[in-house]
């Protein structure tokens, strides 16, 4: 089982990243808000592998805390890898812990693919498990992601648009959300995505 990979980022087309590890290219599916360093000599991702009869997919995360929460999400009835990735693309670990702790059903239903029934199931099944996990990981998550690692994008707006579309938004709807983001030109891709999702929540 592959638990982590360290290599050079060859391309980043959210949510898919291509990582060169000693000449072998690994395709990783990442949360949209993952800090990606396109010009770094090497970057480390913690991974989770899902093996099916017809394919094998790797999911990458900037830290172990986010990967642990992803694995916890997969244990919930009705939550698969795609939805788990959408959840972690919308909310950070600490935000998700707060949402579940506060039983914020409305916030969960703003995640593409999460309806009322799924949101209710998330709240019920994750209330104790994720809250307990969050006590341990929130501080570590902040420490791991609190450094000056900013995502570098060739075109932040284009990548943000692609990311929103991959989350299930129609192109026109995704563009409208981005157009409503204040000072969008000054934001990097992860901040743009999060700001656009905030706009969707306010509707």
TrEMBL record:
Its main location: cytoplasm. It comes from the Bacteria. It is found in: Cytoplasm. Keywords: ATP-binding, Cytoplasm, DNA damage, DNA recombination, DNA repair, DNA-binding, Helicase, Hydrolase, Nucleotide-binding. Residues 149-203 are annotated as: Domain III. Residues 71-90, 106-125 form the Helix-hairpin-helix DNA-binding motif class domain. One of its GO terms (molecular function) is ATP binding. GO terms for biological process: DNA recombination; DNA repair. Transmembrane segments: none annotated. GO terms for cellular component: cytoplasm; Holliday junction helicase complex; Holliday junction resolvase complex. HAMAP family: DNA_HJ_migration_RuvA (MF_00031). Homotetramer. Forms an RuvA(8)-RuvB(12)-Holliday junction (HJ) complex. HJ DNA is sandwiched between 2 RuvA tetramers; dsDNA enters through RuvA and exits via RuvB. An RuvB hexamer assembles on each DNA strand where it exits the tetramer. Each RuvB hexamer is contacted by two RuvA subunits (via domain III) on 2 adjacent RuvB subunits; this complex drives branch migration. In the full resolvosome a probable DNA-RuvA(4)-RuvB(12)-RuvC(2) complex forms which resolves the HJ. Has three domains with a flexible linker between the domains II and III and assumes an 'L' shape. Domain III is highly mobile and contacts RuvB. The RuvA-RuvB-RuvC complex processes Holliday junction (HJ) DNA during genetic recombination and DNA repair, while the RuvA-RuvB complex plays an important role in the rescue of blocked DNA replication forks via replication fork reversal (RFR). RuvA specifically binds to HJ cruciform DNA, conferring on it an open structure. The RuvB hexamer acts as an ATP-dependent pump, pulling dsDNA into and through the RuvAB complex. HJ branch migration allows RuvC to scan DNA until it finds its consensus sequence, where it cleaves and resolves the cruciform DNA. Belongs to the RuvA family. This is Holliday junction branch migration complex subunit RuvA. It comes from Sulfurivirga caldicuralii.
């Amino acid at each position: 089982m592959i638990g982590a990979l360290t290599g050079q980022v060859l391309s980043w087309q959210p949510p898919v990243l291509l990582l060169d590890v000693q000449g072998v290219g690994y395709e990783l599916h990442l949360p949209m808000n993952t800090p990606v360093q396109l010009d770094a000599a090497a970057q480390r991702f913690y991974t989770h592998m899902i093996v099916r009869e017809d394919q094998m997919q790797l999911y990458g995360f900037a830290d172990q805390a986010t990967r642990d929460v992803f694995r916890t999400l997969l244990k919930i009835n009705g939550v698969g890898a795609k939805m788990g990735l959408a959840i972690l693309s919308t909310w950070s670990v600490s935000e998700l812990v707060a949402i579940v702790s506060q039983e914020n059903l409305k916030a969960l239903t703003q995640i593409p693919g999460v309806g009322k029934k799924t949101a209710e199931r998330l709240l019920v099944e994750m209330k104790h498990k994720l809250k307990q996990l969050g006590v341990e990981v929130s501080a570590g998550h902040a420490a791991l992601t609190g450094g000056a690692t900013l995502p570098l994008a060739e075109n932040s707006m284009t990548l943000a648009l692609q990311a929103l579309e991959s989350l299930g938004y129609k192109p026109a709807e995704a563009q409208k959300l981005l157009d409503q983001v204040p000072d969008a030109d000054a934001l990097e891709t992860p901040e743009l995505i999060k700001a656009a999702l905030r706009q969707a929540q306010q509707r």
